[in-house]
Amino acid sequence: MLAWERAQFDRTVADIFGYHALQLGLPELDALQANRMPHRWLATGEPVAAAGGAAPAPHRAALITDFAALPFAENSLDLVVLPHALELGADPHATLREVGRVLVPEGRVVISGLNPASLWGLRQRRAQVYQRLGWGAPFLPTAGEFIGYWRLRDWLRLLNFEVEAGDFGCYRPAVRSEKWLGRFEWMDWAGDHWWPIFGAVYFLVAVKRVHGMRLLSPAWKAPRGVASAPVSIANRAGKTRAQSRNNQ
């Protein structure tokens, strides 16, 4: 799953341009490594050493902050990536609202999350039932809750985001053995073609839209000046009266 997500982030953020980019959570995955913006930050809800066991990449400055109260001005970031930050956060609604606040108009948010409608989601729910009975532990993290793909799209639409792209991946069952992972490799191809919405993880790109805003194009040519000299207007009736007076 980590390899699939890294490939999706690298492919997507490489073509997003601007000046300021921010990653929220999951320091183990450098979701901005393929991005070329000059200013990139990693924000975590706890010290990076405690969260990931390793220091952040040298090109990223680490911030410890509340995801619902980011230390950035309104309309100041061009890109925000959230690798599993919503489902592991305490208040995903507040986090999305804060992302909408700090993004510039036409800025992009890139989100990855675990799909509850998948084999991995089914195993997690079964493990939670077994845990209540004292049989084993959940397979995936229990902090927060899974957010469905279509549910997340509705949240983004309410916040004036337009979904630009979406994808699913990791269709194999959640097994720990490399041998069995290899045997189920055919399911990734089959799932991508036959049941694409049941991947274990989804990937989504959305654009912040501002209603009533009109982008101004650069003025490549100077506008033509309007002549300011007075222009005489002939009055046929006045000219006829003047000629008759002269004849008299």
TrEMBL record:
<protein>
    <submittedName>
        <fullName>Methyltransferase domain-containing protein</fullName>
    </submittedName>
</protein>
<dbReference type="InterPro" id="IPR013216">
    <property type="entry name" value="Methyltransf_11"/>
</dbReference>
<feature type="domain" description="Methyltransferase type 11">
    <location>
        <begin position="63"/>
        <end position="111"/>
    </location>
</feature>
<keyword id="KW-0808">Transferase</keyword>
<keyword id="KW-0489">Methyltransferase</keyword>
<dbReference type="InterPro" id="IPR029063">
    <property type="entry name" value="SAM-dependent_MTases_sf"/>
</dbReference>
<dbReference type="GO" id="GO:0008757">
    <property type="term" value="F:S-adenosylmethionine-dependent methyltransferase activity"/>
</dbReference>
<dbReference type="GO" id="GO:0032259">
    <property type="term" value="P:methylation"/>
</dbReference>
<dbReference type="Pfam" id="PF08241">
    <property type="entry name" value="Methyltransf_11"/>
</dbReference>
